[in-house]
Amino acid sequence: MTREEAFERLSKSKFRNSFRLTRADLEQAGRYGRETVRRHLADFVREKLAPAIPEKDGRQTPYRGHPAFKAMHGCAMCCRVCMNRWWKVPEGVRLSEARQRKAVDFMMAWLDRRGAWKGA
Ligand SMILES: [Zn+2]
Prior knowledge:
Bound molecules: zinc ion
Number of helices: 7
């Protein structure tokens, strides 16, 4: 599946498509800038998703408080159950560095497409 096809598929999910960047998200993204948001996103992926069995899986990603959280929900990369369901990433196995980077790249593209840096 290409990145375009993946975005197309997500856009057809009413739930995934319901995650929007609010004014507060945009302000925060603009304040941090793209590089910092990417670093935070990489930290969240490493801490919340990469472990073979993440703590509180299914409830580890807040719904607000950081634009990266919106991207995680919008991209179905909020927990290992969703990552398995949407991306066929097996549960119970630690995410490789390459898989983590791929996830971060995809979510950064999600943010780019939503004009997250307009306020920068
Ligand atoms: Zn989830």
